[in-house]
Write a structure and sequence with these properties.
Layout: H1 3-8, H2 17-29, E1 35-36, E2 42-46, E3 56-62, E4 67-73, E5 79-84, E6 96-99, E7 104-109, H3 118-122, E8 131-133, H4 139-145, E9 151-154, E10 159-161, E11 165-168, H5 171-183, E12 191-197, H6 205-214, E13 218-226, E14 246-249, H7 259-271, E15 276-278, H8 288-291, E16 300-307, E17 315-318, H9 319-335
Parallel strand pairs: 3-12, 3-13, 13-16, 14-15
Antiparallel strand pairs: 1-2, 2-12, 4-5, 4-9, 6-7, 6-9, 7-8, 10-11, 11-17, 14-16
Helix pairs in contact: 5-9
Length: 336
């Protein structure tokens, strides 16, 4: 399954079923036997060549994407949304969306600039100020198509552009899902426990259950992470840079990378000429935070693809960084 297919599937937190179905079919076609757990994670175990005593290595990549959900409907027939995950309302105005399982088209709107006062223009828009227009004539028609609790996703096509860049929705974390599928095509000395996790964007809920149930010896989390390299941002504040390789984290707000794994990752990357960078900010969080705490504790490390404009309708990454994430993941698995 290619990255275009993965990003264009609609799977916000708590409604990952379209992606889940596609992953199950893809993994079964590889000759593997994926399973679903009670939290909706797709889990597949691929035994290693080392046999008895092999390390059990969990790889986690989350299926879900950020999006919106219908919280209410106005008398005029406009949907009032709330975010699923961290979505800045300032970046979604005038964007096209698809609502519900029927993919009802809509547009996110707010008061036109012509009608705003000088004070309005200084104020940051909040979710109380925006609505989704689906072209309904009134509340009854809007509710019939999109009742409260309806999921809303961004209507964004996958586009390759420039010098190896791609723009799409949900690169966080379809890049990790793409890498994990490709990892499963290989053979490794360790046992690989591949987890396509659910509901990461709303509290890493799927990985928490999977980390406990699978009892891994080691965990690698494959992510998309904040890239702050646009404009005149000073280098120390850039977090990481698109095109500079896979980002290896020593720490974020939910976990501290295992020192041995961190050092091993950098050594392997240097020895095998895999492009890499150390993530330059202690920020964000991901599945590693809950996997690290599972049972008696699990050594973890996060390997990320830098994504510009993350958690927005159109994020951007460089495909060479996705390749670097795959190469370093495989190098670590072969060294286990």
């Amino acid at each position: 399954m290619d990255l275009k297919t993965l990003t264009e599937l609609r799977a916000p937190s708590g409604n990952e079923q379209p992606l889940r179905r596609a992953l199950l079919a893809e993994i079964k076609a590889m000759g593997l036997e994926p399973k679903l757990d009670r939290l909706g994670n797709v889990v597949v175990v691929k035994p290693g060549t080392q046999g008895a005593g092999a390390k059990r290595v969990m790889l986690s990549a989350h299926m879900d994407e950020v999006g919106l959900i219908v919280a209410n409907v106005t008398e005029e027939g406009f949907l009032r949304p709330l975010p699923i995950g961290g979505v800045d309302p300032r970046v979604i105005i005038s964007k096209r969306v698809l609502c519900g399982d029927e993919a009802v088209p809509g547009v996110i709107g707010a008061m036109a600039i012509h009608l705003q006062t000088p004070e309005d223009r200084k104020r940051v828009l909040g979710y109380d100020d925006i609505y989704v227009d689906i072209g309904a004539k009134d509340k009854a028609e809007a509710q019939a198509q999109c009742p409260m609790g309806t999921y809303i996703t961004f209507d964004t096509a996958y586009v390759e552009f420039g010098d190896g860049f791609v723009s799409a929705k949900a690169l966080d974390d379809r890049v990790g899902c793409y890498t994990l599928l490709r990892v499963l095509e290989g053979t490794y000395p360790c046992d690989v426990v591949a987890v396509f996790s659910s509901q990461e964007e709303v509290g890493c809920r799927g990985a928490k259950g999977a980390g406990f149930a699978q009892e891994p010896d080691v965990a690698l989390v494959l992510e998309g992470t904040t890239c702050n390299d646009l404009g005149k941002v000073p280098q120390p504040e850039q977090v990481c840079a698109a095109g500079a390789g896979v980002a290896v984290s020593f720490m974020d707000r939910s976990s501290i990378g295992n020192k041995r794994l961190f050092a091993q990752a950098l050594e392997l990357a240097q020895a095998q000429a895999i492009p890499f960078q150390v993530k330059g900010s202690v920020s964000g969080g991901n599945d590693a935070g809950v996997i690290q705490l599972a049972r008696g504790g699990v050594p973890t490390l996060v390997l990320s693809v830098p994504c510009r404009s993350i958690h927005s309708p159109s994020s951007v990454c460089k495909l060479s960084d996705v390749e670097a994430q795959l190469a370093l993941t495989q190098a670590l698995l072969r060294a286990m």
